[in-house]
Amino acid sequence: VSQVGGVAPPSGPVLVIGSGLVGTSVGLALRRCGVDVHLEDLDRTALRIAESIDAGSSAPPPTEPALVVVAVPPAQLGAVIVDALRRWPGAVVTDVGSIKVGPLDQVRAAAAADAHRYVGSHPMAGSERSGPVAATAELFDGRAWAVTAHPDADAAAVGQVEAMVLACGAVLVPMTPSEHDTAVARISHLPHVLSALAAARLLDAPETHLLLAGQGLRDVTRVAGGDPALWQQILEANAPAVAALLREVRKDLDRLVEELTADRPHLVPLLARGVEGTRVIPGKHGGPVRNVAPVFVVIPDRPGQLARLFADAGDAGVNIEDVRIDHDPGRPAGLVEISVTEASADKLVFALGERGWVAHR
Amino acid sequence: VSQVGGVAPPSGPVLVIGSGLVGTSVGLALRRCGVDVHLEDLDRTALRIAESIDAGSSAPPPTEPALVVVAVPPAQLGAVIVDALRRWPGAVVTDVGSIKVGPLDQVRAAAAADAHRYVGSHPMAGSERSGPVAATAELFDGRAWAVTAHPDADAAAVGQVEAMVLACGAVLVPMTPSEHDTAVARISHLPHVLSALAAARLLDAPETHLLLAGQGLRDVTRVAGGDPALWQQILEANAPAVAALLREVRKDLDRLVEELTADRPHLVPLLARGVEGTRVIPGKHGGPVRNVAPVFVVIPDRPGQLARLFADAGDAGVNIEDVRIDHDPGRPAGLVEISVTEASADKLVFALGERGWVAHR
């Protein structure tokens, strides 16, 4: 049994209930550390696929599992967690669901005496794909993973779940269950809803109007492409927090409509709050927000050009913070937007220009 | 005088009024084709900077200009266009403002006899930076540029403006002024407002909650970082269209809040409309939307690694549709999301794996 980052992975068998994308990926990540993983799923096909890619065994664990990981859809979380606590009276039970208060309430209501063995968690990782075929041991590498201990949880149980998170390669973010649900309502669920509202409006647009679509529209609407059935369950399970935020948004919206129909609209205060909001999002690596500047480069849209571009940027000693390939209607050429620190933007433009690229800030 | 794409650039002097980012970039792009460009700006400093980077001469044109390009802030557009039509009775006048109906109405009201020489336009290009220092001859390369002819416009005037657009390297998108304003309300102004509403809510979040922020939040809120003073003018000038869309959004919002407070919320219909909406946005190069699949690759966050990655992807013969460098709290490693066609995703994962990368779908 190997260690990840100096932390021992869970000792004893781990049972993962649910072999979808996240459950199977947990199995793969733990198997990578030599953990004895067992899998359960009512869907025999999903289970067979997960077992075939070595995410764990479909046989029951030989002894009581040390840790049970519940990885089922949001609507079934509470019931399956309660059931696991009853079936395995010595095991620590966690889950990987996107909401944390509801399942804990169900545990407290239906299995109060066992609640000390339950510690919820939530990895901030996923994919537009789903199911065990999309699973991978690397899904959680470098991703935030919230562990939401409650006051009655055993310290040893919390430690067991934290060890699993670190063994999966994720970054541990401890918070309370209600803090978590409030946080994801604001940073994930509300943005998803507003993205869907923006995208829904496009359905009424004639095709010609959409020719003017730029990267901004793509950015705002991208997350709206997520699975409606899954998002229905997520939003339903976090309904009070999401509804409260939507009411705040509605107040802002009402004021905006009022201003827009007034003689002299005052929109700057709300727009300025938006600007401030973008500045409180932490930078990459959880560090402070760095001043990044975009540099634009025109490239032929064929294999090899990006490699040449990044080789030239690397030769210039400039570290690239982000990359975006921009929409380019009607031409077989791409416009690449490279984000670098403000301090190195001019250097990059100069270095790329010297190497024959059309680059500008 | 050279030609771009077989189309002759404007013959005779071009006068650009306003030497901000867009006006100065128009000057640079036309100078690139050998056009005699003259510049005007009430701000002497901006004018001197624009002239110093060879965007045109600050001296008055030697003869009446063939074309006048008005590139002033939205609130001043109408008045400056009308003034230009009066000052130059033989010139074609265009503008590069983000709204088109209001200025045309002002031209019709104040200079009806000259309206046939006015043809509005709007390049879908910009930057988070502003002013002549940020200007570049390549700003419009491959970008959509709407030309909004009205029924009374001379065919020759429309041709002159279209020639300018093509000389600037942009892709011509013809539409009527009211079509344009309706289109940008939906694909640019509404998404901007919703992005600002999502970002504004982040100001109430404790710092710890923001640790869970992912790429989705970054995407939804990015455009909200734009200049509030400029956006105030844009939204004010297109107020009726934006307000109408916001009222539609409010209806959806009201239904959502109602559903979220009901016993059994039905959110799927609206979420599904959002998914459909993301699918009507045209693909890159204005072509049909292609099925792209994300491939994730773990890379050390230091210069040279991206170059190596793209070289290896290029060797595999896979064309990269888009790239995203993901947030990675607390670790000095990056997670790169590469978008490729569905058909080549497995091939890329395999090829990268063979070359020692940790890659997965």
Description of the structure:
Two copies of one chain form a homodimer. With 361 residues, chain A is of the alpha/beta class. Chain A is 44% helix and 15% strand. In chain A, strands 2-1-3-4 form a four-stranded parallel sheet, sandwiched between helices. The first copy, chain A, has a four-stranded antiparallel sheet with strand order 9-10-8-11, with helices on one face. In chain A, strand 6, helix 5 (155-167) and strand 7 (171-174) form a beta-alpha-beta unit. The first copy, chain A, is globular. Chains A and B meet through helix 6, helix 7, helix 8, helix 9 and helix 10 of A and helix 6, helix 7, helix 8, helix 9 and helix 10 of B.
User: Which chain pair shows the most residues in contact?
Assistant: A-B, 141 and 142 residues
Mean pLDDT level of chain A:
88
Task: Report the strand count of chain A.
Answer: 11
Low-pLDDT segments of chain A: 1-6, 284-288, 327-332
The amount of helix of chain A comes to: 40-55%
The share of residues in extended strands of chain A comes to 15-25%
| Oligomeric description of these chains | homodimer
Largest sheet: spatial strand order of chain A = 2-1-3-4
Overall 3D form of chain A: globular
> How would you classify the helix and strand content of chain A by structural class?
alpha/beta
List SSEs of chain A in N-to-C order: EHEHEHEHEEHEHHHHHHEHEEHE
Largest sheet of chain A: 4 strands, parallel
Radius of gyration of chain A over all CA atoms, rounded: 24 Å
End-to-end C-alpha gap of chain A: 51 Å
Number of helices of chain A: 13
